[in-house]
Amino acid sequence: MMSSIRNKLLVTKGDITKLAVDVIVNAANSSLLGGGGVDGAIHAAAGPELLEECKRLNGCKTAVIHTVGPIINLEVSDSDKQLLSNCYKNSMDLTHKNKLKSIAFPCISTGIYHFPKDEACQIALTTIKNWFKENGDSSIDKIIFCVFNEQDED
């Protein structure tokens, strides 16, 4: 099972909005009204229509999956770990439910939300591995972890 999952995983550095995937996961803030990092890049690439749609809907329902990761203040709690895991699991669930085949994740919560990168990476990989154990029949065949810089790539 794990070798087949490895064949589906790819780590790349670059602009997540330029990837050829069915789903882009947006590490958003809770308002969904744009911000910095990946959220800002997606809003910039989509243009003002995305912001207007998000405002109109009081949240946004588009081809982009929006997820809000935990903010780490002092140390990572078990609740923070579960919240981060849920970001990945719920994104995979939505991709599967909509019968889509490929998904790109940014590094969720590791920027201004201060989740330790190594721990966040382990949670992401473990969550994806466990998700495939529970959803072996999934049509998802490509998961890209799109990182922002060389430190994230390691």
Automatic annotation (TrEMBL):
Highest taxon of the lineage: Eukaryota
InterPro entries per UniProt: Macro_dom, Macro_dom-like
Residue ranges of domain Macro in the record: 1-154
CDD domains tied to this protein: Macro_OAADPr_deacetylase
SMART domains reported in the protein's UniProt record: A1pp
Pfam families registered for this protein in UniProt: Macro
Transmembrane segments: none
Gene3D superfamilies referenced in this protein's UniProt entry, alphabetically: Leucine Aminopeptidase, subunit E, domain 1
Protein name: Macro domain-containing protein
Lineage: Eukaryota, Metazoa, Ecdysozoa, Nematoda, Chromadorea
